[in-house]
Amino acid sequence: MVATGAIRSACVALFGQPQSEVDTIDSDTVREVFLARVAETSASKVRMELAEHLAVLADAKQDVALKAYADNVLSSLETSAEIEMGGAEGVAAWKGKVDTWEQLPVGLKNIGNTCYLNSILQCLFSILPIRAAVLSYGDNKTWNEELRLGRNDGGRLLTREEISEALKFVQRLKNLFEALVTQRVESWAAKRVRTSSGHPLASTTAPLAVAPDRELADMLLLRVGSSTSTTQASSQQQDVDECIAQCVGLLVRALPPPSLMDASDQDSDLSGPGDTWIYKLLSGALEVATDRVGAESEKTEKPLNEAFLNLNLNIPGEAADINDCIDAFFAPSEISSDKHDPNAMDTDTSQLRADTEAGQMVRRSRLKNAPPVLCMQVQRVQFDMTTMRAFKINSHLRLREQVSLTPYLHFDGAAAAHSRRHELQQRLRTVNEHLKALDVPIQTAAQTDNAQVSVVSALERVQAFMAGIGRWSELDDARSLLADLPQSASFITSSAEHISSQLREMSSTLSQARQQWEDELRSTQSELERIYSHVPQDTTAYTLHAVFIHSGHSPEFGHYWVYVRDYVREKNLVRWLKFNDSQVSVVDSSEIFGDTPKQGEESANPYYLVYVRTSCIDEMADFGV
To answer: How far is CA 350 from CA 395, 397, 495, 521, in A?
Structure first.
């Protein structure tokens, strides 16, 4: 005899409310409801409790088959729970067995306006040196866990309080990274156990997602200017580059001072005067020269070095290529003479004015040092001086799987190395303008409807009308009308034929020109594609690793997700994963490298890019366990 209280609890757990007549509920319905509840969670403990409730209902119904089903479920889940509750040893035993191609990584729950933070955390996890260092927290070597003084920040000595705060960030980040690994391994192990036992839950999975630590999130959100924490309602969006800069800053603060590095590591990435392995990994350097150009005197200032964590790229056109953006970044640019701000740059870098005024300053730059992990910020947010409001540029940006930085190692290298590409781009713009002009609708004073007709279509219609006048003149009614006219009918028909002939010639000329321009457009695009696709495999070749997407028409709100390249060495396979908060999915590469934006997602566009040096990508990027 099953206790009434147990039956009531089982019904509430499975059906959400008590059931007056358990005997009247079909066993198949009970099983389906149970499977639905199981699919809502990935925790073995919760699933075991649901299975125990299922066993209670099976006893109450005196259903032998349902009872055997419940016992089978419990047996399987007990094994899964042992894996989950076995701690680090249980997870470690399964790590080497996980098929990382079949078992997708784990998502991150949105805990309140943290979609961009979740994207950053997933990207950081995928960068091997960062993940390995964070997971090594506690070894009393990688991080400054003894709170030793000696590291500078902006020319001043860090305090122990600042070091302690940074270490808390690393520790919380380690907890998150461990959770991402553990849940992925546990899910794989539990699935293997159920599959090997032939259990009906073998194909039942819940979305895998970990909730980031709120204090971890707040350490970053509050630092980048958010007035509220994740526990409060906030519509404010922060820039990805600001948040990444804060992550890097906290990690650097948590490192031991160089003087305390182990002597054996003095030549390693963890040593060096005033240098850290994090900045060697992520930070590059530009050499910037300023030329004073004038009619009477010309002078080149001594080049200066500028460190960067990311390159800030402008979008030079409506449908630009990532190579165009990098070209524009390194192209010489004028420093406006009418502004006192030395950092105020002329945004039009396509061509320098030939007749610069005396004393005009021109800024030139080259890439002095490129980091293994190269980040690029796409400058989509601009400010309208008329409305005094920020707005977002939603122009499509064509991304490339690989880019070469070789031309930018020299001053003016972009223009010198890619003159042919620039010539082709200019020709493309001209041809596109010609084709666009042919499709411009013709407006007439007598036009009363909304019909829009291009010039070629208009010529064809008028030519067809004029050609029909000859046939009209042969009609009996037309003959009678023409006979009473002061001029002969032959004049009208011959004039119509002449006009028709001229119109036919005009239409033919424009049609042939359209065909010629369309052929030229295709051939020019093909040649450009060959140039873009040719990336010499040297130390300046970079492979796209992550793409942060911002979806929304305004910079003030929207949603972020990130695409990350996933490479499984054991199988030599590459795919792209989409991390959209809790949801992790495999996507076709066309979502990242398409010529045009995905239909319906015109406002979802690349906002931040992470490229990894191709020659060392195996050592830098990985989503394994």
So the answer is: 18, 18, 51, 21
* Contacts for 146-152: CB closer than 8 Å, 24+ residues apart: 146/256, 148/256, 148/257, 148/260, 149/257, 150/256, 150/257, 150/258, 150/259, 150/260, 151/252, 151/253, 151/255, 151/256, 151/257, 151/258, 152/274
Q: What is the mean pLDDT of residues 284-304?
A: 75
Instruction: Print the SS3 string covering 519-582.
Output: HHHHHHHHHHHHHHHCCCCCCCEEEEEEEEEEECCCCCCCEEEEEEEEEECCCCEEEEEEEECC
For residue 341, the SS3 value is coil
Compute how many other C-beta atoms are within 10 angstroms of the C-beta atom of residue 81.
17
Q: What does R_g of the chain's alpha carbons equal in angstroms?
A: 34
The single residue listed with the structure tokens 């994963």 is 577
Cα–Cα dist 560/580, whole Å: 8
Q: Give the pLDDT confidence of 139-186 residue by residue, as tens digits.
A: 989 999 999 988 888 778 889 999 999 999 999 999 999 999 888 887
Phi-psi region of 450 (alpha: psi -120 to 50; beta: other; left: phi over 0): alpha
Burial of 68 (0-12, 13-18, 19+ CB in 10 A): exposed
Cα separation, 372 vs 113, in Å, equals 31
For every residue of 491-505, which 3-state class applies, written as one string? Answer: HHHHHHHHHHHHHHH
Least confident of 1-10, 278-287, 549-558: 1-10
* Mean pLDDT for the chain overall: 79
Q: Measured between alpha carbons, how far is 335 from 146 in angstroms, rounded to an integer?
A: 48
> Band of the pLDDT at 340, cuts 50, 70, 90?
very low
**Digit-coded pLDDT (tens) for 478-535:** 777 777 776 666 777 778 788 888 888 888 888 888 899 899 999 988 888 888 888 8
CA distance from start to end of the chain: 48
Please choose, from the candidates 87, 128, 94, 121, the residue with its C-alpha nearest in 3D space to the C-alpha of residue 107. 121
Strand partners, 576: 565, 587
542-552 pLDDT, tens digit each: 999 999 999 98
- SS3 (DSSP) at 315: coil
Which of these, 383, 305, 317, 387, lies nearest to 350 by C-alpha position? 317
Rounded-to-integer distance, Cα 543 and Cα 469, Å: 65
At 233, the amino acid letter reads: A
| CA distances to 39, 54, 204, 205 from 36, in Å | 5, 12, 9, 10
Question: Facing residues of 606 across strands?
Answer: 549
**What secondary structure letter does DSSP report for 489?**
H
The DSSP element (H or E) to which 188 belongs, if any, is helix 160-196
